[in-house]
Hints:
- By secondary structure, the chain is mainly α.
- The chain is 63% helix and 0% strand.
- It is built from eight helices and no strands.
- The chain starts with a helix and ends in a 10-residue tail after the last helix.
Amino acid sequence: MTDQERLFHSALRILARRAHSRWELHKKLSTRAEQEVVLSTLQRLEDEGWLEDENEIALRFEEELHRKNKSHRYIAQKMSQRGLSQPAENLSKECEKIRNILKDRLPEWASLDYNERTRLMQKLVFKGFSHSAIKLAVKNEGSYEEPRG
């Protein structure tokens, strides 16, 4: 079996696990063969219809992360790591995700003390949510106090 055939079969095994962007597949295959062989293998994969549309891959991946209540910052970082286009920020979706994360705490938001609110907000900031999205998401749940520090 030639290097070209071996690399082609490796690429098919990689694609069998999940869809990859052309950039991501190029990165993985480059560790296994010379650049010329990698480029011809990628062209063959594209010609034979093995590569999915990158917009479709990006859309599915973005939706998967939205369902997991991941922040826009987290999603943008992960998509960048896979060589996919950056999603547009949607503040209403961010607020919805924050409310999902805090759904057990929001009904009692007004009765939480300042330290507990601050702790919950810091947890959300750590997860990558913007301060403005957090503020907007909890604004209607009781009086909002700006955390200090």
